[in-house]
Amino acid sequence: MELDRFDRQLLNLIQDDAAQTAERLAEQVALSPSAIQRRLRRLREQGVIVRDAAVVDPRKVGRPTFFIVSLQVERERPELLAQLRTWLAAQAPIQQVFYVTGEADFVLVITAPDTETYDGLMARMVADNPNVRRFTTNVALSVVKQGMTIPVPLEAPG
Q1: Does residue 150 contact residue 102 with C-beta atoms inside 8 Å?
Q2: How far apart are CA 123 and CA 120, in angstroms?
């Protein structure tokens, strides 16, 4: 799919605040509200916009602690990795999972109300996934920056 400058502007704007009305977006992009709605519908249908989500303050909903986990597996056989990926994706406290290079095989971002809850999740992970060799945990002392925004250049690359 080819993205023009208007599409790129829209993507940047709605990543910042997806609740903006078509009228508000039209003021910033110089298109009509109906053109904005058509473009957003097309971007969703073509899978450029994967989903709209609300950003929640974790402290206000009882999930104040973030754990960054480096996970090593015993064997990298495709079926064992697929089983682990499926398990990780099904766990609500696990916000992000990255399959990475280096010493770890996966890096996880997990949120939990306390260390006891985190320990319970990790005990279940090890019990349910015998291919997990080991994991190391870093506890976030504070969050300096958190986001999911993908910067979209206004001009097409190349």
Answers
A1: no
A2: 5
Q: Other C-beta atoms within 10 Å of 101: how many?
A: 6
Q: Is 80 exposed, middle or buried (0-12, 13-18, 19+ CB in 10 A)?
A: middle
Q: Using CA atoms, how far apart are residues 92 and 72, in angstroms rounded to an integer?
A: 21
**Which residues are CB-neighbours of 28 under 8 A, at least 6 positions away?**
9, 13
Alpha helices in 3-156 (DSSP H): 5-16, 22-29, 33-45, 78-90, 115-128
Question: What fold characterizes domain 5-45?
Answer: Arc Repressor Mutant, subunit A (1.10.10)
Helices 115-128 and 78-90 pack at an angle, to 10 degrees, of: 150
Q: Which two tokens stand for residue 122?
A: 């990790």
The pLDDT tens digits for 91-130 are 999 999 999 999 999 999 999 999 999 999 999 999 999 9
Top CATH class, 58-139:
alpha beta
pLDDT at 12: 96
Beta strands in 47-156 (DSSP E): 65-73, 94-99, 106-112, 132-139
Cα 130 from Cα 96, distance rounded (Å): 21
